[in-house]
Design a protein that fits this description.
Helix 5 runs antiparallel to helix 6 and helix 6 packs antiparallel against helix 7. The chain is extended, with a radius of gyration of 28 Å. Helices cover 72% and strands 0% of the residues. By secondary structure, the protein is mostly helical. Among the domains are: 106 residues; 87 residues, Leucine-rich Repeat Variant, CATH 1.25.10.
Length: 297
């Protein structure tokens, strides 16, 4: 009997404590809201900037957008942030922070505001005088908004060999998500881009968005021994993934891949063998080669 009484008292105390904690929390929330609204604007801005700075140091994305949403809900505040993002006389860190903040806001704003912010992000990307870190962040912001309005800016960025590879492959990813992805550009990047990751992203964009009509162009890249081994490998991979994705087994493509089983590049032979396995369901023998060559560009 005593044990039952003690257990009942313990449960009652825990329930009472929970109610007290909830009550205190609710009242603190009620007190905090008017306190924030009545707080001078300078202090609000300082508090928000501190939170955003802290988030930026701890993570590549803002874990909690509440601060930026609260700060930018006022149109004049947004306009100031936009001006700061474009102001080349301001420190890069502040411009980047403004761009990052506007990117968070854009996800939760109205359609008209998203359109306008998308155009601003495109301006940042197209201005080659802007630091690459700023242009890259604008690309990520644009990607989070969905389809880009001005694909010419993305195409130009994807073709700029003198920029960072990450800029180019992010532009390619953005282009792949738009209507009528530029397959000719993807083929050109697959064949000629100096960076291996960009070439792979171009191949991936092809097999995710192209029709089977692109296979002859991919076969041309795969068969040309003047191309990089990695470009030839990725072209064959694109053929394989296109065929598997659409459950197509075309005898013409199979016949064109067979000669590549005897290619002098081991990487090409392996890729052709894997593609033919996917297309025919049977193993295709190849001559062994240097395993390290599988990782050469």
């Amino acid at each position: 009997m005593k044990k039952t009484t003690k257990k009942a008292i313990k449960i009652s105390l825990i329930a009472l404590l929970s109610i007290v904690i909830l009550f205190i929390g609710f009242n603190l929330l009620l007190l905090y809201t008017p306190f924030w609204i009545l707080m001078p604007r300078e202090i609000q801005e300082e508090a928000v900037q501190f939170k955003l700075s802290k988030n930026l140091k701890e993570s590549s994305t803002l874990d909690n957008p509440t601060a930026s949403l609260l700060f930018l809900s006022n149109k004049s505040e947004r306009e100031e942030m936009i001006n700061l993002m474009f102001d080349k006389n301001k420190p890069l860190e502040k411009r980047y922070l403004a761009l990052k903040t506007l990117g968070v806001w854009a996800k939760y704003s109205s359609f008209e505001e998203r359109e306008e912010l998308g155009e601003f992000f495109e301006e940042i990307i197209s201005d080659l005088e802007n630091p690459e870190s700023l242009r890259l962040e604008a690309l990520y912001n644009l990607k989070s908004l969905g389809k880009a309005k001005n694909t010419n800016i993305l195409k130009e960025t994807a073709m700029q060999n003198n920029t960072s590879p990450e800029l180019r492959w992010t532009a390619i990813i953005n282009l792949a998500e738009n209507q009528n992805p530029p397959q000719e550009l993807f083929l050109e990047r697959l064949k000629n881009d100096p960076d291996d990751t960009v070439r792979f992203k171009a191949a991936q964009a092809i097999w995710e968005t192209a029709s089977l009509e692109i296979i002859p162009a991919l076969l041309d890249i795969a068969s040309d021994k003047n191309n990089r081994p990695s470009s030839r490998d990725y072209a064959i991979s694109a053929i394989r993934n296109l065929a598997v994705k659409r459950d197509i087994k075309n005898e013409e493509e199979i016949d064109d891949l067979v000669p590549l089983l005897k290619d002098e590049e081991y990487r090409v032979r392996v890729s052709a063998s894997e593609a033919l396995l996917a297309l025919t369901g049977k193993d295709w023998a190849i001559e062994p080669g240097d395993e390290e060559s599988l990782f050469r560009e």
